[in-house]
From TrEMBL:
Transmembrane segments: none annotated. It comes from the Eukaryota. This is Uncharacterized protein. One of its GO terms (cellular component) is U2-type post-mRNA release spliceosomal complex. InterPro entries: GCFC_dom (IPR022783), TFP11/STIP/Ntr1 (IPR045211). GO terms for biological process: spliceosomal complex disassembly.
Length: 241
């Protein structure tokens, strides 16, 4: 529809038109897209990607960096906090990666987002033992995934529906509040199997080795596994990033 205008206007004028009238709508479209493997509606994604030939790679990358990947990583963190099936997780990761063109996958910030996802998945597999999970993540890390743009939609995963509903509930306890705040910021928060301190479950939070436990709505955290320091929730989230 805009191709006749593209030929009629100078490159600078046409770019200004896109930035003023089109890009804000694409940003809103991407921001409003629900990211849910259980029932993924891809129409908003396709509407944005339909403009990839008129927008520069840098402009398209900015849209994804600001309005897609933060929420995508948040969804992944929420999923990992609910002991998922890692075969489904890796399929979901690979499916989204195949949705991007080779040029977009080559952008440093997009590479970084996928790398962060792999780090989160790898960290989670060291905490929650599941046959084949670590091998699947290692394969993705070492060999990557074919990034051809034509690909099926990310798979629908029934088990994720309950996780979405659970995360949407108003927290009923302090642990639920911590879980919800971690999900909002895309921070991994999972129990460490068979590890307790003063009969309280110890959790791993983030990907830099921070551990914590909760005692009567007070958070104690440790960066070395031996010295436990009381802290606020906001401080805990800051040190775990």
């Amino acid at each position: 529809m805009l191709q006749p205008w593209q030929r009629a206007l100078s490159p600078g004028s046409f770019l200004a038109f896109l930035l003023k009238h089109i890009v804000p709508k694409l940003q809103h479209c991407m921001q409003s897209m629900l990211i849910n493997p259980h029932q993924q509606l891809l129409d908003p994604w396709q509407w944005v990607m339909d403009w990839k030939d008129m927008l520069s790679i840098s402009n398209m990358t900015l849209i994804l960096d600001k309005f897609f990947f933060p929420r995508w990583l948040q969804t992944l963190a929420m999923w990992l906090n609910h002991s998922p099936n890692y075969t489904q997780v890796t399929e979901w990761y690979s499916g989204w990666k195949r949705m991007l063109s080779v040029d977009l996958l080559a952008q440093p910030t997009i590479k970084d987002s996928f790398h962060k996802a792999l780090e989160m998945m790898s960290r989670a597999t060291t905490i929650i033992q599941q046959p084949g999970a670590k091998e699947s993540i290692s394969y993705l890390s070492s060999s990557g995934v074919n990034s051809t743009p034509a690909a099926p939609a990310p798979p629908k995963i029934d088990s994720f529906a309950e996780a979405v509903r659970t995360a949407a509930k108003i927290p009923q306890g302090f642990k639920d509040l911590v879980t919800k705040r971690c999900e909002e910021r895309g921070i991994l928060f999972v129990p460490i199997p068979n590890k307790y301190h003063e009969a309280k479950q110890v959790y791993r939070i983030g990907t830099n080795g921070v551990q914590c436990y909760i005692d009567r709505n007070v958070i104690f955290y440790s960066q070395n596994g031996s010295t436990w320091i009381p802290t606020s929730l906001n401080r805990l989230l800051d040190v775990s990033c």
